[in-house]
Amino acid sequence: LGPVDPALLNNLGLSLALSGDTDGAIAILEKLVRGPDATARQRQNLALAYGLAARDEDAARLARADLGDDLAANNVAIYGQLRALRATGAGTAPILDAIVAEGTVKE
Fold it and tell me: pLDDT tens digits, the chain, 107 residues: what are they?
């Protein structure tokens, strides 16, 4: 894997989002999503980063691209719950559990 490997950058962006560095995550993931080979996983990781940053309109727009209106609305609601959970100081473990349980993105 090289320093510009898309899978590596996608994972880094997701890790940053889950650790609370949503600005860093968004910066990395936006570059990936703008590329010609952007994947649903990259778009949905960016949607998650937007959602965790309280950018719900951006999150919904990206979520709808792959998931449709109903699932996009559901994800945006979950992002709000995750922000509330994070505000309690619960850390990232409950966030990871919620994302894994959701499992809506398939490639």
Answer: 455 789 999 999 999 998 899 999 999 999 999 989 999 999 999 999 999 999 999 999 999 999 999 999 999 999 998 888 888 876 656 666 665 555 544 44
Give me the helix-helix angle, 40-52 and 56-87, nearest 10°. 60
12 CB neighbour count, 10 Å cutoff? 16
Can you tell me the distance from the alpha carbon of 12 to that of 35, in angstroms, rounded to the nearest whole number? Answer: 17
What is the value of pTM for the model shown? 0.82
50 close to 30: Cβ distance less than 8 angstroms = no
CA distances from residue 101 to 58, 69, 94, 96 in whole angstroms, order as listed: 23, 20, 10, 9
